[in-house]
Specification:
about 25% helix; Nitrilase/N-carbamoyl-D-aminoacid amidohydrolase; 5 helices; homodimer
Chain lengths: ~280, ~280
Amino acid sequence: MTVGLIQMKIAEAQVDNLAKTIDAVRALAKKGAQIISTSELFLSRYFCQKKDDRFFSLAEAIPGPTTNAFSLVAREMGVVIVVSVFEKAGTKYFNTAAVIDADGTLLGTYRKMHIPDDPEHGYGEATYFSSGDLGVRVFETKYARIAPMICWDQWFPEGARIAASEGAQILFYPTAIGWHKNDSKPIRAAEHDAWQTVQRSHSIANNIFTVAVNRVGVEDDLRFWGTSFVSDPYGRVIAKGSTKGEKNIIVKCDLGLIEAMRKDWPFLDSRKIGHG
Amino acid sequence: MTVGLIQMKIAEAQVDNLAKTIDAVRALAKKGAQIISTSELFLSRYFCQKKDDRFFSLAEAIPGPTTNAFSLVAREMGVVIVVSVFEKAGTKYFNTAAVIDADGTLLGTYRKMHIPDDPEHGYGEATYFSSGDLGVRVFETKYARIAPMICWDQWFPEGARIAASEGAQILFYPTAIGWHKNDSKPIRAAEHDAWQTVQRSHSIANNIFTVAVNRVGVEDDLRFWGTSFVSDPYGRVIAKGSTKGEKNIIVKCDLGLIEAMRKDWPFLDSRKIGHG
C-alpha cells in the first residue's frame, strides 16, 4: 500500500491551489500512490490569522465544488483522496476532511473536533469553525481503513485511540502548522519536535501508521514548517518533507506490520482503562 | 524541584540491592535530589522470565520491610521516594509502587494495571501479578504532585491523561525493560526508540514531566537497556542514562514550565473526547 502527501505553498488564488493540487494527485497516482492527502485548508491562504467576516464566503457545501472536482480525479486515477474543505453546513461552518474512494464515491466526512482558539499566535480558528459534531470516523476505502483527523486534533491521543480501536490502519492529519514570528528559537525547536513526537506516538501506542500533511511557506506572521511525514507503527519516520520546500511525498506502507507488531505488543487488546 | 533516578544493575541477593539503593538515595539526596525513584522490582533479579512458584516468596506486605526501610531513609534525608515492591495483599500479588513522603509517611500505593503476558520474550508477569485494582493515583508530596505508574503502563496514554487531569506534575515509571536475545537488530532499535518516544509524548500531550527509571545489565535472556530519562513538558529529554552503565541521575525540573506551556497549548482544557 502506497500513500502520497502533497506538501505545498499556498497561492493567493483558490483556483491556482486547486489546479496545482489536482496536478499533484495525478503525478502521485502515476508514481503508484493509492491514498493521497492534501494539507489542511489548502485552497486558500491560512485566513484564521485574521478576523474578517469576508472569509466565511470561502466555505462551501459537501458535496460541493471541491469534493466534486476530487471525485472526478479520484475516479480518473483510481486513487483514494483525503481532501480538506472549509465546509458550510446549514448555519454552521466546519473545518472538514472528506474521504473519496478510488471510484470517486464520497465516503463521508470528518469534522475537526479540536479547534485552536489562539489568535495571539495566529491560530484564531474559533472565529470560523464550530467544533466537529461527527466524532471520530473510520472509512473503509479500496486500499486501507483510514481515519482522517485535522491539525490540532493531532495533540490528543484519544482520537487516535478511538480510530485504531475501530479498525483504522492509517491516520491522516491534514495540517496547517508553523512558527509564529514572535516564537523564541528554543520554543520553535521544541514545538517542531513535539509535533512529530506526539504523532509518532499515536502510531506506537496503537500499532498503526500516521500521515501528517502540512503546508509550507510564509504567510503573514506564520512560517509553516512543512515536515510532512509518515510514521510506521513503531514510530519510525519512513518519509519526510523539508521545513522549507514543496514536495510530493510518496512512500510504501507495509500494513502487515500492524498485525505483526500487535502479536508482540498488543496494546489495544490489553488496555485496562477505557477511552470514553 | 530536583529529581533523582537510580539506574542500577541488580545483584543476586536482595539484601545487596536494598543496601545499594539506600546508599544511592543518600548520595542523591546529598546532591539535592528531592524526589527519588527506584526502578521496577529492583530488590531482585527479574524473576518473571521464569515460571517458578518459589518466586512468590519474594513478595511482602505494604507497609512491610521494604517500605519501612525507605520510610526511615526518606525521613533521615528529607526526600520523597517512589519505591517499587512485589506486594502480597491477602491472597493476591501485585507489582506495586509505594510513595513515601519526605517525613517518612507512606502516602499510598499504585498497583500496576497493565501486566505483560509475554513469556516468549521474557515478560511472563501474568504468572505472578494480578492487574492493579486501585486505578491511577496522584499523590501530593512535599515537593510536587506525582503519579507513579509501572513499566508496561507506559505504553498507554490513558493513564498519563488521567494522572495529569487529576493534577499530577510528574509521572514516575519504575521500569524493567530490555532486549530479548532473540530480538533482531532493527526491532531492538525500534523498540528502544519507541519506548522513549511514547513516554516523551505523555509529557507533551499533558504538559507535564515524565521520569522513567530502568534497570541495566544482562539477566538470563534479557539485556536491560537502562536509558533512564526525564522528559520536560515539551518532550525534551533533560537527563538520560546510558544503555549499559549504572548511574544515579539527578536533574532539576522547572515545574513552572507546566503552566507556562498550558497558556499556549491548553491540551487538557480543550479536550473534546473524554478518557473514560
